[in-house]
Amino acid sequence: MELKVAKDRCPQNHACPSVRICPVGALSQEGFKAPVADRKLCIKCGKCVRFCPFRALRLE
Ligand code: SF4
To answer: pTM of the full predicted structure?
Structure first.
């Protein structure tokens, strides 16, 4: 299982709120692009998955 970012689900027009929700700083964002997950840092807690209203973040 790993964190997947579905870019087609992200409107890419805002500062991603899930970046701040991640407890280990595994998510980063360049401008308003879809966030990128550092799979080495991610502990698969699912907080960002539950937080993203567009369901662009998934653990699968
Ligand atoms: S699953 Fe948890 S640790 Fe991984 S990127 Fe999302 S919030 Fe961060």
So the answer is: 0.89
